[in-house]
TrEMBL record:
GO annotation, cellular component aspect: axoneme; centriole; cytosol; nucleus
GO BP field: iron-sulfur cluster assembly
Binding positions for [4Fe-4S] cluster per the UniProt entry: C194, C197
Cofactor section: [4Fe-4S] cluster
Family from the record: Belongs to the Mrp/NBP35 ATP-binding proteins family. NUBP2/CFD1 subfamily.
InterPro entries per the UniProt record, alphabetical: Mrp/NBP35_ATP-bd, NUBP2/Cfd1_eukaryotes, P-loop_NTPase, YlxH/NBP35
Functional description taken from the UniProt entry: Component of the cytosolic iron-sulfur (Fe/S) protein assembly (CIA) machinery. Required for maturation of extramitochondrial Fe-S proteins. The NUBP1-NUBP2 heterotetramer forms a Fe-S scaffold complex, mediating the de novo assembly of an Fe-S cluster and its transfer to target apoproteins. Negatively regulates cilium formation and structure.
Pfam families cross-referenced by the UniProt entry: ParA
Protein name per UniProt: Cytosolic Fe-S cluster assembly factor NUBP2 homolog
Predominant location category: cytoplasm
Key words, A-Z: 4Fe-4S, ATP-binding, Cytoplasm, Iron, Iron-sulfur, Metal-binding, Nucleotide-binding
Quaternary assembly: Heterotetramer of 2 NUBP1 and 2 NUBP2 chains. Interacts with KIFC1. Interacts with NUBP1.
Keyword ATP-binding: yes
Length: 268
C-alpha cells in the first residue's frame, strides 16, 4: 500500500466535523456539507470514522456497495457517476449492516489509521471527516495522523440548548489543547420548518451557538433549521439539494457552504 502522504497530499482542504455530544445531528451536518460542496462545483471525499455508529452509507443510499481495492489502496464508494463525491465508512466492511463493532481502543485506532493511509482520494478539493461524539481516542488518532498535512481545522456542531452548548465549550478546549484550528461553529436544529407553510418556529432556544462563537472569538458559520424534508432525505438516501430546492434549510445550507468556502480561501 502507498503511504498516507501519497494519498492525503493531494487533498486541498481537510475538515474535521466534531460535536461535544450525540444527538445534535453531526453526521447529518457532515453529509450536507459534503453534498453542498459538491453542488458548489468541488470534488469531495467524506470519511466516516464513527466506527460504532456508521450512518453515512445509509444517508447516501449506498449501504449495499462494496469496497474495491487497487494497487494503491482502497477506492471510496462514489455516490454519483461523475465521481464528484466519494465516501468511505466501516459500514461497507461489515458482513451485516446490523453487526455491532465491539472493539477496544487499539483496534479502533488501527482502523482509523488505515482509513487515513489507504483510501485513494484522487486529487479532491475537500475531505470532510465525520467523527464520533466527544473527545475520545478516535479523535486523537485522527488529529495526530493529520498533523503533517496541516488540516484546515474543525467545524463544531451544536444545538441551541444550553446542555449542548456547554459540551461544545469542552470541544473548543479540546481543539486548543490539540492545536487543531477552529473553522467555526454551526447551530443545528435552530428552529422548526413547518412542512406545510415553511414558517420557522423556535421549538428550542436560539442563538446559543452564535453567542458561544462570540465568547471564544471563533467564526459562526450559521444556523440550520430542523426541517422534516432534510430528515426524510437522509432516511431515504436522497440528495436533499436536488429533492427540495425551495426549502428554507437549503438556503441556510447554501449560505453556510459559501461562508465555508470563503473561510478556506482566506486560510494560509
Amino acid at each position: 500500500m502507498a503511504a498516507s502522504r501519497d494519498h492525503l497530499s493531494t487533498v486541498r482542504h481537510v475538515i474535521v466535523v466534531l460535536s461535544g455530544k450525540g444527538g445534535v445531528g453531526k453526521s447529518t451536518v457532515a453529509s450536507q456539507i459534503a453534498l453542498g460542496l459538491m453542488h458548489a462545483g468541488k470534488k469531495v471525499g467524506l470519511l466516516d470514522v464513527d466506527l460504532c455508529g456508521p450512518s453515512i452509507p445509509k444517508m447516501f443510499n449506498v449501504e449495499e456497495k462494496d469496497i474495491h481495492q487497487c494497487p494503491e489502496g482502497w477506492l471510496p464508494v462514489y455516490i454519483d457517476k461523475e465521481q464528484r463525491l466519494g465516501v468511505m465508512s466501516i459500514g461497507f466492511l461489515l458482513s451485516n449492516k446490523d453487526d455491532a463493532v465491539v472493539w477496544r481502543g487499539p483496534k479502533k485506532n488501527a482502523m482509523i489509521k488505515q482509513f487515513l493511509s489507504d483510501v485513494v482520494w484522487s486529487n479532491i478539493d475537500y475531505l470532510v471527516i465525520d467523527t464520533p461524539p466527544g473527545t475520545t481516542d478516535e479523535h486523537l488518532t485522527v488529529i495526530e495522523n493529520l498533523k503533517s498535512y496541516n488540516p484546515d481545522g474543525a467545524i463544531l456542531v451544536t444545538t441551541p440548548q444550553a446542555v449542548a452548548v456547554g459540551d461544545v465549550r469542552r470541544e473548543l478546549t479540546f481543539c486548543k489543547k490539540t492545536h487543531l484550528p477552529i473553522i467555526g461553529i454551526i447551530e443545528n436544529m435552530s428552529g422548526f420548518v413547518c412542512p406545510c407553510c415553511g414558517e420557522v418556529t423556535n421549538v428550542f432556544s436560539k442563538g446559543g451557538g452564535e453567542s458561544l462563537a462570540k465568547q471564544f472569538s471563533v467564526p459562526f458559520l450559521g444556523c440550520i433549521p430542523l426541517d422534516p424534508h432534510l430528515t426524510q432525505s437522509t432516511e431515504e438516501g436522497r440528495d436533499f439539494f436536488e429533492a427540495f430546492k425551495g426549502s428554507v434549510a437549503i438556503k441556510a445550507l447554501q449560505t453556510l457552504i459559501q461562508r465555508l468556502i470563503l473561510v478556506d480561501e482566506n486560510l494560509p
